[in-house]
Amino acid sequence: MLPTWCYFLWNLKIPVSRYPRSNKRDAIALVNSSGKTVTAVARELGISSESLRGWFRKAKAD
Known about the structure:
By secondary structure, the chain is mostly helical. The protein has helices spanning 4-12, 21-34, 38-45, 49-61. The chain starts with a helix and ends with a helix.
């Protein structure tokens, strides 16, 4: 069961990020500098490869 404040945020439609922006930037930089695939880096960091792939695509578009 989620804490009450989670339901409050859900009702307000306020997005709650699971990962801080600095972690996202570091993960994207690691993909760029390591020469490894997004999937390999995500596995090493213990995060979802789909999440990292989305961040990577968004960073490339910006």
